[in-house]
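Researcher: Sequence recovery benchmark, item below. Answer with residues only.
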């Protein structure tokens, strides 16, 4: 029974099909579409897929976007949609947010994926979980699996567009990351990169002081590959972190 996992972000819908709804399942197919092109899924990338037996997703997009994705699944497979939302606790993670349900589903699922990845490799450790996309989130999780809190800051594109709109004569660059930038394009690209890296370093320091142990740092998201080479802390880049979390949740929900 194949399993369809969906991650609907602020810019793209990412999807993956596995041979089962459990961790360690084989990836059969995957892809991504910009939100403006969701309607082409049924007649395009999904047209030749076998009907999934189960589906589970997370979304931070507007309800209208979620309904468009559901319509594609209904049109093609008559497949009921199920979604993960943040709660007080699930899959070994407890939620320390002031209002747990208001935590972004993608953040919640990525932390679940990161925790189980860490546990599969050894003893419990605190974590810092970083998602680099349209926005950047930097999460702290203690060794017992409690989400302590997290930062939200603009991604590269938002930072650069904000500077362009608020500063006369400044245009979004295609610069490089330099230790000592000597032109405006490199200065802007380097500034955004090191701002994100600095937020991760600060969160790691908070976790280290709070937990009395060195955190493991995981990074994911569409722009994670741009950030990872510029991190000062050891950092593992895991493209599939949200899908890993969805597989963990799916195993528990569908086994019940």
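Model:
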């Amino acid at each position: 029974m194949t399993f369809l996992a969906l991650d609907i972000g602020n810019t793209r819908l990412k999807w993956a099909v596995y041979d089962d709804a459990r961790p360690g399942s084989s990836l059969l197919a995957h892809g991504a579409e910009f939100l403006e092109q969701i309607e082409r899924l049924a007649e395009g990338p999904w047209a030749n897929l076998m009907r999934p037996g189960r589906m589970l997703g997370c979304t931070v997009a507007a309800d209208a976007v979620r309904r468009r994705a559901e319509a594609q699944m209904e049109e093609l497979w008559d497949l009921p949609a199920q979604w993960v939302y943040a709660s007080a606790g699930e899959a070994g993670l407890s939620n320390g947010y002031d209002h747990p349900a208001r935590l972004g589903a993608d953040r919640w699922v990525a932390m679940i994926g990161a925790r189980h990845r860490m546990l599969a490799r050894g003893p419990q450790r605190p974590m810092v979980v970083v998602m680099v996309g349209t926005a950047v989130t930097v999460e702290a999780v203690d060794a017992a699996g409690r989400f302590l809190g997290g930062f939200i800051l603009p991604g590269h594109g938002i930072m650069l567009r904000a500077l362009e709109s608020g500063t006369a004569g400044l245009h979004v660059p295609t610069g490089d990351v330099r230790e000592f930038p000597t032109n405006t394009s490199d200065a802007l690209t380097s500034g955004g990169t090191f701002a994100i890296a600095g937020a991760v370093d600060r969160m790691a320091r908070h976790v280290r002081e709070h937990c009395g142990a060195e955190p493991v740092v995981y990074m994911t998201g569409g722009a994670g590959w741009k950030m990872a080479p510029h991190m000062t802390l050891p950092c593992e880049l895991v493209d599939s972190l949200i899908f890993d979390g969805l597989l963990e949740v799916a195993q528990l929900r569908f086994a019940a």
